[in-house]
Input
Amino acid sequence: MVGATYPLAFTLYPYRTCVALGAPPVRHPVLIIGGGPVGLATALDLGRKGTPVLVLDDHEGVGIGSRAICFAKRTLEISHRLGAGRAMLEKGVVWNVGKVFHGPDKVFEFNLLPEDGHRFPAFINLQQPHFERFLVEEIEKARADGAPIEIRGRNVVAGLDPQDDHVRVTVETPDGQYDALADYVIACDGARSPARDMLGLSFDGRVFEDNFLIADVRMTADFPTERWFWFEPPFKNAGASALLHKQPDDIWRIDFQLGWDIDRDEELKEDNIRARVDAMLGGDVDYELDWTSIYTFQCRRMKTFRHGRVLFAGDSAHQVSPFGARGANSGVQDADNLAWKLDLVVKGQAPDRLLDSYSEERIYGADENILNSTRATDFLTPKSDISKIFRDAVLQLAGKHAFARPMVNSGRLSVPCVYDGLSLNGPDSLAGPERTRTGAACPDAPLGDGYLLDRLTGGFTLLAINTATPDIAQVGGIAVSHLTLTTGDDPTGALTARYLGDTPAALYLIRPDQHIAARWAKATATDVETAMRIATGQGA
Amino acid sequence: MALTLSSNIQDPDGFYDELLATHEGLSKDESDALNARLILILANHVGDRAILREALQAAKE
Ligand SMILES: Cc1cc2nc3c(=O)[nH]c(=O)nc-3n(C[C@H](O)[C@H](O)[C@H](O)COP(=O)(O)OP(=O)(O)OC[C@H]3O[C@@H](n4cnc5c(N)ncnc54)[C@H](O)[C@@H]3O)c2cc1C
Output
């Protein structure tokens, strides 16, 4: 049978006999391999901008079992720009408090202390199948409004043949095989990326010699909505660490770190899993096993995310251990980064080399994520006697002394990286706040009865605060919209604090992905034009 | 500021004594753990990353 190697949680794009069978190959501007979170987000973004996109997935929907559960503020903001953020927030579980235990003792407690004045919380927990379903629902809506997006379920990409000006893609379906031609291919086909193999590309990094047992259990328990993490858990057979974290629909994620030399099949037997979960929850708690699995983790990335007309995004390009929730969260940032660039290139408004900056910027992000996940994994799984000695010393001290608490690392949760010093950055000519420097993603702020990010809707925006915008409506056919605000529009002071600091006025040039391309105290139309050219790959 | 590598502890013999006395009666594992805690406490007291880096280097040479 073609495709369908795992059972589905939701059928989202049922197989239909493809019109392409037996017909001469059709040419597509953009073809996406893989309908996971990253492929779907990229397709939705491109389609909403009017660039036709074809998504091929080897299944008819999303598989059972949630890999990702923690989705970060930035992911929700991006999803909101794409129309799906509200549904995610409504369904998701908002959490702020985390407790860290060492054996039976609570070592300390942290609060993400979400800063006020953002539409979205720091984190929600939501099952990955719902996350993907919301994106597909939004794609359906966009299609109804004319967005040129097509998803073909059970269409397996079996061959990639890059040519000078296109890529020939061979696709297998239950009714036979066909070829499609694409100006650009985005490989969002996951960590095992067949596309990577088809092009003979390597994927190097570190494997962590440890197995993690995941048990999602359904129960009505009155544990608080907090992240509980144990080093050396006190319950029987729980391994080297354990985690308890709430998801929607009365599902709880339980995670046990089992070590390297285990018998997988044995550990996955229901009785053995239940024995562990019983010991953790106490024997009198009633629960159902919703989904179980055993994972090993790695941190690695491709050397470059662009290979001619084939671009890699999400897990196919980079993989991290899940401590820090940086997998799907960073993949959605890849989508956010790539979609507008590819859209401009396909429309002929920016040169092809703009796509090189996708690889440059997202490698920068991937390296930051890999660094953070590797450090967390080293803390969780000490690699030598001495690293275990220091790890335990940190945990012991953290119970007594504040200084040691920041060293405890059970995952540093995902935040977007700042593209410091990279090629698309224009000037930073404002003595403004550090967090809104050139290269940063715009932080949200309340505005009237909405939020600032609602006004940054996917094109270039010139944001002026307490000053006028220079007279410039487009650069080389790329529209620049204007948003002129004053401190009078700032009901809470957050806009001033985040965008002005101690300066009286500011002008920001903001990219379609809501990253800051340049900022000034004062700028002329020529300054803006120059920054626009740099930001669209037309700089010197 | 640079890492101090000239003598800086009053009564060096007395300090050395106290250091050993702190370890007295401990097993190898307990001593290793104590040393690790001590390093972390002192490192935090120093705080300055450049000085800490110099100290790590000096210890390694
Ligand atoms: C236990 C665990 C916990 C995690 N927790 C988190 C978390 O809390 N937060 C977080 O952000 N991330 C987390 N992650 C990571 C997250 O699940 C992944 O980063 C995310 O799924 C990557 O999305 P993707 O779209 O790149 O790839 P995938 O989701 O793997 O999607 C790839 C798609 O491509 C399809 N495909 C593959 N080959 C072909 C082909 N030849 N033709 C057509 N289609 C093909 C696949 O069927 C699949 O639908 C976790 C991962 C694990 C394992």
